[in-house]
Input
Amino acid sequence: MGVKSASVHYHFPTKPDLAEALVNRRCAEQEAFFEELFARTQDYEELIGGYIAMFRSGFDCGNRMCVAGVMSAEISGLPDPVRAAIRRFKDLNVAWISKMLRIRHPRMGGEPLRQRAFAIYAALEGAQLIAHGLGGDADAFDDMIGGYAASGLLSLNGSGARSIDAGSDHPGDERKPAGRKRA
Output
């Protein structure tokens, strides 16, 4: 890659500085993703499908995982600024999922909506983690998403979410429909 250790240390004197910068960058990317997604559609099925596809795209790109999700597993051992960045990432996701859910459930109260949004965020992070642990098994991820839909957590019509191209930064991201087996 051509990046020298000295240049990394110049910009990020400590590992916590680098970790915080990584999560903050991911927050900015996530915000841009949500804004682009909402600019393309106000259809709940397409919004949630695009969000699921974002998590799934990691399997099409070398079995990548959400950096905030990975760090969350060890949050108790991280410095306060990194913990704060991870919480901002979680709060950002929950807020945007709540906005999606408001379209589907316009009469649902604020706290139940936030709780459901948090459950969806946790479920997708967990599905990604488990599928990653199974060697990047995208079919396992799809099965979990199908289970979330069947249980009503994702409030999907039919067998899964329709997927839209949500502007992934992962080359080769095919945006397969969530909840369906790949051929």
About this structure: The helical segments are 5-11, 15-40, 44-56, 67-72, 80-104, 110-133, 138-151. The chain has seven helices and no strands.
